Amino acid sequence: MKIKDLEINGITFLAPLAGVTNMPFRQLIKDCGCAVVCSEMISAKGLFYASEKTTTLLKSQEDERPLSVQIFGSDPVSMGQAAAFINDLGTADIIDINFGCSVKKVIKQGAGVALMKDLVLSQKIIKTVREATSLPFTIKIRSGWDASGDQAVNLAEIAEDQGVDAIAFHPRTAVQGFRGRADWKLIARLKQTVRIPVIGNGDIATPQDAKEMLSQTGCDAVMVGRAAMANPFLLSQIEQYMSHGTFAHPEPRAIFRTMESLTRGYVSYFGEITACRMLRGRLAWFVRGLPGAAVFRRELSILASSGHALEMIRDFEANLKV
Ligand SMILES: Cc1cc2nc3c(=O)[nH]c(=O)nc-3n(C[C@H](O)[C@H](O)[C@H](O)COP(=O)(O)O)c2cc1C
Fold first, then answer.
1. 308 lines ligand 1 (CB under 6 A)
2. pLDDT reading at 41 higher than 80
């Protein structure tokens, strides 16, 4: 599959996840195996004011590429400026606009899924961003504000017309948040509507789910969010399953090495104190279901140093072997 002139080597996209898909996490997923990783959403206004918190989100490394960087906002001028800035930085391979976020704070600014109510403004934003960058340009959308999916189809037609190169589609409504099931029938409808690639998203938890979405909808690639947080090998398992019809389960050893590398990655990216705070939640995801997970989680809740985290991981692994 190609997005504009960018050859995508595989069919799996790591979804943008605010607070999660920072550089160390993306590197981890890339190391495990996946086609494209996405940044978390970055405020166009924040970039405009050069806020330190926002510009930090733009940090990336060569080994993550191809990297998609997602921006959000509701003002065409600052969205265009943000796209131009990212374009000139030279570290992103794709620029994506967030038309799907349903978090109150984002909707209140008229951004994210709020834009799906205002197709005139959406068109302006897409046009400005298209003019600001020659990079492959994608949008990520929801069904819209009702379950019919008409708003998604209308926005997709505008986007294609304005030169957007691919669309990622999470078919839940704005009010649904993450409740209920994603309506994959709407992905099939969108795929019938536009000629540009469609990346299906929503409720993929296993390689079999990905295969089912691809065959039910005809979408060109799949995007995985929440399930990749607990199983960083999932995207690589999907690639294996779609190529060979089988996939390997990671050895416990590989899971522990992954936990160690995330620990080190967080420390060098966030510094010791923030890293430890974040690791208290993150490391617990990986041991879910293993004997001793509850005790590990309890000890993690008072984690004070990365050295302690590495020691806990080593002890957990040793006890598992006994
Ligand atoms: C913690 C969290 C943060 C998210 N942050 C973003 C974001 O920054 N940008 C975005 O477009 N979607 C965001 N999403 C939505 C996901 O990208 C994805 O569309 C959604 O989780 C459905 O896919 P899944 O069923 O594979 O998780 C977020 C979802 C979660 C759970």
1. no
2. yes
